[in-house]
Amino acid sequence: MSIYHVACDEAYSDGNNRYLVLGGVFMTKEMTSTIGANISRWKDIASLSEHTFHWTKLTPRNAMHYKHFVNGSVSNCQRRRMRYRSLIVDKRHISLADYHDGDRERGFYSFVNTFIFNCFVKELGAQDRLHVYWHKRDTPFALDELKTRLNNRYMLRTKSQVRPVVSVEHAPADGHHFIQIADVLNGIIGCDINEKANPHSKRGAAKYDLVKHLLGRVRMDTFKETRSSWRSHFTTWHFDFDAVRKRKDAPKPSGKAAI
After folding, report:
1. DSSP letter (8 states) at residue 173
2. CA distance linking residue 215 with residue 230, whole number of Å
3. CA proximity to 112, closest of 178, 184, 23, 189
4. Residue 250 confidence (pLDDT) above 90
5. Which of 36, 137, 202, 250 keeps 20 to 30 A from 258, CA to CA?
6. Going by C-beta distance under 8 Å and a sequence separation of 6 or more, which residues neighbour residue 118?
7. What would the pLDDT profile of 147-180 be if each residue is shown by its tens digit?
């Protein structure tokens, strides 16, 4: 039996951006402790113990620290100590408010469900258990409902009574290294595909440089297509609406749609 943790966040969810990015880092409970201790030690050495890494906090002055933070994250994926996976949704094809009788939050969490289940839950064995942490956000949506629906999908898929998802809870980014990793990686990918990096401004140049840096580290030439490195330990998955609409478990604009 293995116990896993996944820390997730979203990026570019506001209406001014075409693409929504949902992403998370997944690892065993033991590796959470090991990698977390290594990050804390590095932050202490670099005098960053009080710093919360956040994509919006990237500046030319701290850009080198962000590169080191990205390097460590990618290295752990490359060594298969953790996985980063993301779901990218082209919001031109949907209105989140159209899902679940106009309830925007339920519409949003329908894609959260799709992301967590397909990227993490469906690969769990019958004896495995998963704890999900989502970056704390202001929402009336009950995360226990998401846990129930994830477990129901797993039982339906495996034709069993196994409920592998133990908990789904919000977690603040402060002090949570893996939420910070998800935040920064999501921000880089979303910045690239939403074309938000302006190399002609100081702040934009720092973002542009970090986008190029991550692309080089994961050996990809773009984040604008579904790609994978190191046997799926670093994956960007673009939501294919045409293909998914044909599946029974796809979110549909209906008051009875499963999230």
Report:
1. S
2. 14
3. 23
4. no
5. 137
6. 87, 237
7. 999 999 999 999 999 999 999 999 999 989 999 9
A 10 A CB-CB count for 80 gives 13
User: What is the rounded distance in angstroms from the CA atom of residue 95 to the CA atom of residue 104?
Assistant: 8
| DSSP string of 97-155, one letter each residue | GGSTTT-HHHHHHHHHHHHHHHHTGGG--TT-EEEEEEE-------HHHHHHHHHHHHH
How far from chain centre, in Å, is Cα 27? Answer: 13
What's the chain's average pLDDT? 88
| Beta-sheet pairing, 19-28 with 83-90 | antiparallel
Query: Kind and range of the H or E element at 236?
Result: strand 234-238
Distance of CA 50 to the CA centre of its chain: 23
Query: Rounded to an integer, what distance in angstroms lies between the CA atom of residue 39 and that of residue 73?
Result: 10
Tokens 């065993």, residue located: 28
80: left (phi over 0), alpha (psi -120 to 50) or beta: left
Element (H or E) spanning 36, and its range? helix 29-45
Q: What is the spatial distance between Cα 137 and Cα 114, in angstroms, rounded to a whole number?
A: 19
d(CA 57, CA 124): 35
What predicted TM-score, i.e. pTM, was given to this entire model? 0.90
pLDDT digits (tens, 9 = 90+) for 74-106: 999 999 999 999 999 998 877 666 666 777 788
Those residues whose C-beta lies under 8 Å from the C-beta of residue 158, and which sit 6 or more positions away, are 126
At 181, list the tokens. Answer: 């990793």
DSSP helix/strand/coil, 72: helix
Task: Choose which CATH entry (3.10.310.10, 3.10.180.10, 3.40.50.300, 3.30.420.10) describes domain 3-244.
Answer: 3.30.420.10
